[in-house]
Amino acid sequence: MRGSAPRKRAILTALILLTFFLVPLSIWLGYYKASMADILRVLFMPDNSPLSTVVWDLRLRRILAAIVIGAVLGGAGAAIQAVMRNPLASPFTFGLSFAASLGVAVALLILQGGALQRYQIYVYNPFMVSMCAFAFSLVQVLVVLLLAYKAGLSAGSLVLSAIATSFAYQAVLYLLQYFYLNEVLVSTVVFWTFGDLGRISWEELRLVATASALLVIPYFIYRSLDYDLILGGDELAKSSGVSPERLRVETTVLAALGTALATSFVGVIGFVCLLAPHAARLLVGGGHRYLMPTSMVMGSLILLLSDTLGRTIISPIVIPVGIMTSLLGVPLLVYLLIRGGGHGYRD
Fold first, then answer.
1. What is this structure's pTM?
2. Mind listing the domains of the chain with CATH numbers?
3. Is the pLDDT score of 184 beyond 70?
4. Contact 74/277 with Cβ under 8 angstroms?
């Protein structure tokens, strides 16, 4: 084990406190300048001032979205890596994000669920978009499970097959854009694939937060000890009263739900679900009792820092968070893999 339980609790507590500390700091940073005292004042006592509008309507909403969605992606990545016993497994590498993106494109282009108005995506029926994203994610889940149980693929081959199917989703997405040569509709889908926390509304954020807090995150936490058992092999899990098949199905479905919710409202955000568990594993080791919540907090931190950097690095231009996570995620992931000995389960 990587350290004692008190040390792991201290690390997890420190990461949570760091996240809370970064919230007012992230609100303070940006093109609109104000003192920290004024930021804290309108944060606790909102009024009708322009600063209050900036804090509540522009910055706080995307910060809370980063925390919630980052936690879901981080937890989903750690859970899928456990049930597949593969450090490369994640909703991103398994193609769930791309499948959800295709579902969003179908809802926007074919079902006419949204449009682009004044450089902002306007969704007529966000629930229809979410359901399409979830439905296509479930299709990818079935493909992954079919390859795992029927084709008898190894863990590495399974990841490569999932990546291959993600290219198929991209091809269909490009085909839709080719047939629908309407620059407004195509621009809507293209903007969606960038990944932008600024487009989520308060109502959509409440929907994502409610589903995450009541279903996705509690399930991953509740199954933490079962993930440790399945890492020891299916026989060990069965002897302990855990059904590996049921655990894999439930985990992938819940990961698909969380990924679909995130993708349908903020677009594709890559590497968070892959990077957060590796970073957490280096801090607290492989036991999921602490690895799972640490992965969630690391996901929130990574997404929050990426979004803050994207808003401030070339202000007033905002770089979408999906682009920032990809730019930052590749070198960080390579560094973590080298430091961790080239694999994801080193204790």
1. 0.84
2. 5-316+330-339 (1.10.3470.10)
3. no
4. yes
